[in-house]
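Bug: token stream looks shifted between consecutive jobs. Job 1:
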Amino acid sequence: MKAVKIISTAVVCALLLAGCKGQKPVVGTSAADASLSAAAIIATHEAASPNFNTLASRVQVVYQDEKKEQSITVSLRMEKDKTIWVKASVLGITLAKAIITPDRVSYYETLSNSYFDGDFALLSDWLGTELDFQKTQAILLGQSIFSLNKNSYRSMVADNKYRLEPKQQPTNFIHSLLLNPDDFKVNSGRLTQPIDQRELSLRYGPYQELNGSKFPSEIFIRSMESGSKTNIDVRYKKIDLDVNLSFNFKIPDGYEEIELNR
């Protein structure tokens, strides 16, 4: 894989995976209650979404495929429901910047003098599943990327966690979710698309409390498409909530637009 795609993919994955770290993660000890209905579990999970206006964080992203491994420091800024902004750097040198909004994805790379400016096709193509801003934000916050309809999902207790899955699995979108019994945040999730030979799994490290809300401390993503595997590990260094932030972003003049391979 060319360096340009390694850097770009790491930036995009940082957008998808970034959370925050401030206090020491707390490992839960609660037991899952088998008597809870799927509707109650879903409602409690939705209520567990963090409450904040802005977020600023620094994260370490390690990207690895069969050919190369790349470690990148990423600065993250976020305005909930509106904007996600990242800057990727190595040894203090800016490699790339990216910004996403509910209707657009834009980024540029300094090494190749190239840029992308378009819709969510970039994220969907590279990660192997359809994504939009709300799903991206959900991964950021340890929430479900699936639309959890209480009437179409069933629940069970598995490994002392709440397992949610559709009562009837779609043919090419087979998925499930495990929630922690302590905080009802996502412990792990899996999506397989057998027709397209795609598989995506997410696993979260212990959650931590900050200003009354729970945030991930680590996130691990594993994706496979047609036998090709990609691993991304994200660990968080610092987090500030509800601070004044700017989201400056401008594609430099003279940069060449990237043609995506679909």
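Job 2, same session, no restart:
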Amino acid sequence: MKRVEAVLLPAHLDDVAERLRMIGVPGMTITPIRETTLTDQVEMYRGAPVIHYLVPRVRLDIVVNDDMTETVITAVTLAVRRHEDGDGRIFVAPVEEVIRIRTGETGADALA
């Protein structure tokens, strides 16, 4: 099993969630986060410039079987890619074990 973590703009969340639902991803965890940037974003507030170096993002954590990993990566990429700075990042890491607490199911059975 693999854990696919995607960090993206909040505006893309609905598109990504819909694509993942369409390909049969059983579920995901969504966490609002703030990410630092290399270039400060300047915004005017009451006539004075305010510099933001933390920008809002969402992090999706998705655990899938190995054979579904590339499908999930492709779905997220197609839903988000605009070829612009800030499109996001995808991280993939192995998952040793998944256990459903309520039933004690393990492995792929615990994902569904």
